Please model this.
Amino acid sequence: MPVEIAFAGRSNVGKSSLLNALFGRRKYVKVSSRPGFTQCLNFFIVNDNAYFVDLPGYGYAKAPRRVIKKWQRLVEGYLLKRSSLKAVVCIFDIRRGVDHLDTGLISYLQSIKVTPLVVFNKADKLSNNKIRTNLERARLLLPIRDHEPLVLSARTKKGLSRFVDKVICPLLSAQE
Ligand SMILES: Nc1nc2c(ncn2[C@@H]2O[C@H](COP(=O)(O)OP(=O)(O)O)[C@@H](O)[C@H]2O)c(=O)[nH]1
Ligand SMILES: [Mg+2]
Model:
């Protein structure tokens, strides 16, 4: 059975950009101009045995209530029933840190026995000092103990090969 790795995060966090960076393509995945309104799951074929799944972004303030409800039904339905799902890469913005929606996502995944793997994007926007401070603060709020979050930039690709080596490759090879 093929394995799947899903990508989740707030709208505009750079989820599509990270998928493009992983595939080494510029516009394989649409980088959004209208955040918060993508209401479908996008599947990307990695190889014969693996898919990446781009989940619609959450937390867009202007999204109407019925859109949020639809998002919940769609995403929860997928997360709860997908037996080929290996893990969910949770992408956060290193400038913003994490809030209750982000920690809520992590706790929800843990409660349904799906592994969350945390990645901070947009590292190119901050100095190394600021990255360290923000990471330490976020670390205290995140309910994860089994792995250290990675910091990367989908734009400059800094940290991308480490992410592939530490996160993606082990998940894809786990099934063999
Ligand atoms: N500076 C910077 N901008 C980024 C990075 N990743 C994404 N962006 C920008 O953030 C915006 C949202 O990106 P997108 O990939 O559509 O986010 P998504 O809504 O999470 O899929 C776009 O303007 C991207 O160019 C990054 O690593 N650094
Ligand atoms: Mg997107």
Remarks:
- The pocket of magnesium ion (ligand 2) is lined by residues 15-16, 32, 38 (CB under 6 Å).
- The helical segments are 15-23, 65-81, 100-111, 128-141, 160-173.
- The first strand starts at residue 3 and ends at 9.
